[in-house]
Write a structure and sequence with these properties.
Low-confidence stretches: none
Mean pLDDT: 95
Number of strands: 17
Radius of gyration: 21 Å
Largest sheet: 9 strands, mixed
Shape: globular
Helix content: 25-40%
Number of helices: 16
Distance between the termini: 29 Å
Structural class: alpha/beta
């Protein structure tokens, strides 16, 4: 690759903490950040490099979406304003049973990846069936991903048993070994939907292979009584006994924590993935982020799937996370704008075990970056760029996105993805679901003409 110099008006590298720099340059070589130095020094030292001027922009690390079900974008808005178990059992799972397959996952993943890239996300931590398909779509798009290998105790179209889920997942993981854009994790659905034997097998494989375990944990109050009734112990006690409560666990949601849980999670170095908008929409409770921070527990952000959010906008998620924490704690000082930005970047990289490669703009790290235009009505005037990023800016202001130094989005336009075709496929699935689902749900699909990338 050629040497490229990015010349933003403002730079927020995330590490060192709290820096907001002007008249700086970021040099990219071979997919890595080769230098971070003053504009004048960069232009003098790299005379023959390609220059990309970003005069009205802030340059930040690419965002990392730590929990999503990418193919579920095809169910965006399909079943809203419902209890979690009604939503799953009576609407989402029946539709998936009727329509789920490789083509569905391919088209839904494409739609999700385009939406995420358009909003500055350069890495997503996924959790869905046919993970091999999502992996292929991510690589084709040039996006980085950790692909979850799903495990659940009921037969699905992808696998008939927990052991078959694990075996097929291991095959998927092996097939993508050596692909620099991808890693894999075990993705048991939840403690209540995966048995002890399967969880114990996952725990041993996770340790042996140093793979993350990506799981919904304590998402709703129902789980508290269910674990005690079925296993005679709390969810966290059970996970600890099985060997899953450690630094490799990515515990998603965690809305049902009490004071004693904080010490347990801190001592085990568990990573929490907070999905505030999905939790709020499904009425599942609030993850106590400020309390987690007090106990030095790492917290990152995820959007969850678009079927329960209903978007994959991480800037919006960060705003919700910061405001919700202040309201829940009655303390306007908790979860500052900068801490919210860390949850999108370096905290997420740490949760994945990749903080030496991602999450900040530092020499030697991968050049996963996004530029955001700040010359906008909603971001004028600007006194503090980080405050504006979290509390004011829109994902539509993201103008450029690089993954491994490769420019994927330029001036808000995709360089390699066909947005019109992606939207056409989404409309195709909506029409099929609306017309073929029989008694599953009475819905109507509105097919809109035209397609825009933003």
């Amino acid at each position: 690759m050629d040497t490229v110099i990015l010349l933003p008006h403002l730079l927020v590298p995330v590490r060192p903490r709290f820096q907001k720099l002007e008249q700086m340059a970021v040099v990219i070589e071979g997919g890595l950040i080769a230098a971070v130095l003053t504009r004048s020094d960069a232009l003098a030292m790299y005379e023959n490099a390609t220059r990309i001027e970003l005069p009205d922009h802030v340059l930040v690390p690419g965002f990392i979406n730590m929990h999503t079900h990418s193919a579920m974008t095809l169910l965006r808005g399909y079943a809203d304003d419902l209890d979690l178990h009604v939503w799953l059992n009576e609407h989402i799972w029946p539709v998936e049973k009727a329509f789920l397959g490789p083509g569905y996952v391919h088209d839904g993943s494409q739609l999700a990846i385009a939406e995420m890239l358009r909003g500055g996300t350069t890495y997503f931590n996924d959790f869905y069936f046919y993970p091999e398909v999502t992996a292929a779509v991510a690589v084709d798009a040039g996006m980085r991903a950790c692909i979850g290998l799903p495990v659940i105790d009921v037969p699905t179209i992808w696998a008939s048993s927990e052991d078959e889920c694990i075996d097929k997942g291991l095959e998927v993981s092996a097939s993508w070994q050596g692909e620099p854009l991808l890693s894999t994790s075990f993705a048991p659905h939840a403690p209540y939907s995966v048995g002890d034997a399967a969880l114990a097998r996952i725990a041993k494989l996770s340790e042996k292979r140093d793979m993350r375990v990506h799981m919904h944990v304590l998402e709703s109050s129902w789980e508290l009584g269910e674990s005690l009734h079925k296993h005679g112990k709390t969810t966290l006690e059970r996970l600890a006994d099985i060997g899953l409560l450690n630094e490799r666990l990515l515990a998603v949601h965690m809305t049902q924590l009490d004071g004693t849980d904080m010490e347990v999670l801190s001592n085990a170095a568990v990573n929490i993935v907070h999905c505030p908008e999905s939790n709020l929409k499904l009425g599942n409770g609030i993850c106590l982020v400020s309390r987690l921070f007090e106990h030095d527990i790492n917290v990152a952000l995820g959007t969850d799937g678009a079927a329960s959010n209903n978007d994959l906008d991480l800037l919006g998620e960060a705003r919700t996370a910061a405001l919700l924490a202040k309201g829940a704690s009655a303390d306007p000082c908790v979860v500052s704008a900068f801490e919210a930005l860390e949850m999108l970047t370096i905290n997420a990289a740490s949760a994945l075990g990749k903080s030496d490669q991602l999450g900040s703009i530092e020499v030697g790290k991968l050049a996963d970056l996004c530029a955001i235009r700040m010359d906008n009505l909603r971001t004028a005037p600007m006194y503090d760029v980080v405050s504006h990023l979290i509390y004011t800016a829109s994902s539509h202001q993201v103008s450029h996105v690089w993954v491994g130094g490769r420019l994927l989005l330029e001036n808000g336009e995709f360089l390699y993805m066909d947005v019109a075709s992606i939207i056409e496929r989404a409309n195709y699935w909506a029409e099929r679901i609306a017309t073929e689902n029989g008694s599953l749900k009475s819905v109507k699909a509105y097919k809109l003409k035209g397609a825009q990338s933003s």
